[in-house]
Amino acid sequence: MDQFDCRANPGGDGSTFAIPKKMLASSPMSYVNTLRTFVRVYELGSMSAAARDQRVSAAVASARVAELERHLGVRLFNRTTRSLQPTEQGSIFYKGAVKILETIEEAEAAIADVSRNPRGSIHVAAPLGIGKRLIAPLIPGFKDLYPQIDVRLRLSDRRVDVTAEGIDIAFLLGALEDSSLLVRAIADCKRALVASPDYVARRGRPRNGQDLIDGRHSCLMLRYPGAREFYWTLLTPEGPRRFDVSGPFESDDGDVLTGWALAGRGIVLKPVFEIAAQLRAGELVIVAEETPPESVSLAALYPHKRLQDPKVRLFIDHMIAACRKAVSEATADATTVQG
């Protein structure tokens, strides 16, 4: 088979990757799309998941991988009805394919940087609450400034795997874990324990964390697979203290917890900027003011290689400035009303 020897890492380790000349000559962009599909199938371990990620049908994704196998003359995956595992050849080919795609992305990014006309798609992940009330409302403003950049936003309260899921930027609200990702701090967000006036009228207004325990208050907990916080850490005169609160309701969706609190079903711990509107309207009130929760960090995480992409840098800089302003204004407004 005729092959074109393409340098996958120019100026680096000198490794090369053989692209079938027949495929490259007939449709270069089609071959690039085939490589992207193969890489996502390898990373996600699922043909259907890769198809969704690439916005094609499962049949198209499967056909691309099959075409690649025919041209290479090897099997890249072992398939069964329940699993899809890469072969040895598939693992070798994956490393080369990733280098090729990264080289293409870097070249396109360099051109976009020079022309000051960035384009392409950015994949963004964020928790549900801040995603709906903070991140999503700010994205159209970015799109107005850079009309040729598309933003794909995914919202979930579970922890996402930035690398495996092909995420360019992930917003995180909470403790930062050690990782290979780059981190840009955005803000320390004030949090509060809140309940509806109806709940307070029925159950009383706890003054501190000990009142939560002694009064057997209904505490609404955010829990999901992999969650680690099954208690609330509150600030006491002696310093931060763990309170093992409990209640009959829990969910993996923060908005569900807010809804239950509004319905008078219990007390929820939320960032103030998330519930600023409800505090202003008097639909929620702050409780246990003597022992408020610790503030929580809002940050942006992204892989090292993404920082080289002008559109990613532009998005991060824009969103950090906009988020800081929005969080500051919402927190100050809500705190003034409650005070």
Descriptive overview:
There is one protein chain. 44% of the residues lie in helices and 23% in strands. The strands form five sheets. It has a five-stranded mixed sheet with strand order 6-5-7-16-8, covered by helices on one side. A five-stranded mixed sheet has the order 13-10-14-9-15. It has eleven helices and 16 strands. The relative contact order is 0.13. With 339 residues, the protein is an alpha/beta fold. The longest helix is centred in the last third of the chain and has 29 residues, at 310-338. Strand 1 and strand 2 form a beta hairpin. The termini are far apart.
Query: Distance between the terminal alpha carbons, to the nearest Å?
Result: 76 Å
- Spatial order of the strands in the main sheet? 6-5-7-16-8
Shape: elongated
What Rg is obtained from the alpha carbons, in whole angstroms?
25 Å
| Biggest sheet architecture | 5 strands, mixed
> What assembly state would you assign to the polypeptide chains in this entry?
single chain
Q: What structural class do you assign from the helix and strand content?
A: alpha/beta
Q: Total number of β-strand segments? A: 16
Whole-number average pLDDT?
Answer: 84
Low-confidence stretches: 1-26
Helix content: 40-55%
Portion in strands:
15-25%
> Helical element count?
11
Pattern of helices and strands: EEHHHHEEHEHEEEEHHEEEEHEHEEH
